[in-house]
Design a protein that fits this description.
The complex is a heterodimer of chains A (222) and B (216). Chain A is mainly α. Chain A is 79% helix and 0% strand. By secondary structure, chain B is mostly helical. Chain B has a single domain, classed as MetI-like fold (Orthogonal Bundle). Chain B is flat, with a radius of gyration of 20 Å. The chains are: A mainly alpha (222), B mainly alpha (216).
Chain lengths: 222, 216
């Protein structure tokens, strides 16, 4: 068997463009998912039982089904219900909605971790709802929310590889295409695995740095 | 969607369940073996386990499966796509389960191990009869959530040609032009299987004996 990694590395700039799209979709999807997840968790907290139930159902469906089935439904099924999206927007939308379901559960657990007394104290001090969220709930739950949120963000990075199956020209699709052009499948997949491995390790390290930074919010717990 | 199509999906979900169940059980056995290596304290063993866990948790499962499918034939090993998929899924979940078991093993009270030493247990006996049961009991909830993750991850073996629920749904979607109905139905079946696994987990959790180790 012939194994020549140079064949793949010769296409460096193509790999970089695939990598750039992977990172871009990942960061955009995570940021949008984080925002949407926060909105969902907040609506579930303040919106009353009906809103809570109405949001719980889609969240459970998104968390209980494979991401692959979700993006297939969106990309191949979408045009049949009047939602024709190009691969990149479809991938970004799929990743955002999928991530939002998990992030919303993380924020929900965060909200629940803040003692009710602190919220009542804020009420007594005349804080409005948004002020309470901004100055009491968010800082108090930051440390609870951060580790699982970092974890989920790293999972989303790995999930972006599935977008190659709906022809988003991200890292996996790009490197596989190079592999078949040069007839070097094994080499291309080795490079691919190493690049993801490095990305995930870097993302994990950044997450730990963020946790260290936010630990200034750590308060004495009684 | 006709009952005929839905029953085809149901049949294919048998393969999904089979593949996931195999991976979970085989992955658990490998994870216990890797935990033993980790607890041995041998530097080489520690390094091996650390790299194994980091690699299989750090690379997308899709890439792992594609790599395995090209690697095995290049090494002169020819296996069916089902066997290769089983190996890939098992190795991946083994890495996650090793990491899950880490906390369980750390929580085994050292006093129990010392008592076992006193009673003349060999290290292998005290590992298999004391540490493993306690670690498994303590990490049982994470085993159930891992089972659900693997059920969902098993959809990826469709990419390498195993005809399970997702692959059946895409095949039928391509031939009937009803992707919305078929993928939605497949999603519902995944949801139903996951609910059943969750319920079984809760039921079993209540029935398992305690370990006497205080929860952390």
């Amino acid at each position: 068997m012939k194994f020549d990694i140079g064949v793949i590395l010769a296409s460096g700039h193509e790999i970089l463009s695939g990598l750039a799209l992977t990172v871009l979709i990942w960061i955009a999807g995570s940021a949008l998912g984080l925002g949407l997840g926060f909105i969902v968790a907040t609506l579930r907290r303040y919106g009353g039982p009906l809103v809570n139930l109405g949001l719980a159902i889609p969240v459970e469906i998104l968390r209980g089904t494979p991401f692959l089935v979700q993006i297939f439904l969106l990309y191949f099924g979408g045009p049949f219900i009047g939602l024709s999206l190009d691969p990149i927007p479809a991938g970004l939308l799929g990743l955002t909605v999928y991530g939002a379901a998990y992030y919303s559960e993380i924020f929900r657990a965060g909200y629940q971790s803040v003692p009710e007394g602190h919220v009542e104290a804020a009420d007594c001090l005349g804080f409005g709802r948004i002020q309470t969220i901004r100055h009491v709930l968010l800082p108090e739950m930051a440390l609870i929310v951060l580790p699982p949120a970092v974890n989920m963000t790293v999972i989303l990075l790995k999930e972006t590889a599935l977008l190659s199956l709906i022809t988003v020209p991200e890292l996996t699709l790009t490197v596989q295409a190079i592999g078949s052009q040069k007839y070097a499948f094994l080499e291309s997949l080795f490079v691919l695995a190493l690049v993801y491995w490095a990305l995930v390790e870097i993302a994990g390290q950044l997450g730990r740095l963020a946790e260290g930074y936010f630990s200034r919010y750590r308060t004495a717990r009684t | 969607m006709s009952w005929k199509l839905f029953s085809l999906l149901l049949q294919a979900s048998g393969m999904t369940i089979l593949v996931s169940a195999f991976a979970i059980v085989a992955g658990l056995i490998i994870a216990i073996a890797l935990s033993a290596l980790r607890l041995s304290g041998n530097r080489l063993a520690l390094g091996f386990v650390a790299v194994f866990v980091s690699f299989f948790r750090g690379v997308p499962l899709l890439v792992q499966l594609l790599l395995l499918f090209n690697l095995l034939p290049a090494l002169g090993i020819s296996l069916s796509s089902l066997s290769t998929a089983l190996i890939g899924l098992t190795l991946c979940t083994a890495a996650y389960q090793t990491e899950n078991l880490r906390g369980g093993f750390a929580a085994v009270p050292p006093g129990l191990i010392e008592s076992a030493d006193m009673l003349g247990f060999t290290p292998v006996q005290s590992f298999l009869r004391i540490k493993v049961p306690i670690a498994l009991r303590l990490t049982f909830p994470t085993l159930i959530s891992e089972a659900i993750l693997i059920l969902k991850a098993s959809s990826l073996v469709s990419v390498v040609g195993v005809i399970e629920l997702t692959k059946m749904a895409s095949n039928l979607a391509a031939s009937t032009f009803m992707p919305v109905e078929l993928y939605a139905a497949a999603g519902l079946i995944y949801l139903a299987i996951n609910q059943v696994v969750t319920l079984i987990g809760r039921f079993a959790e209540g029935r398992l004996p305690g370990t006497g180790v205080p929860a952390r």
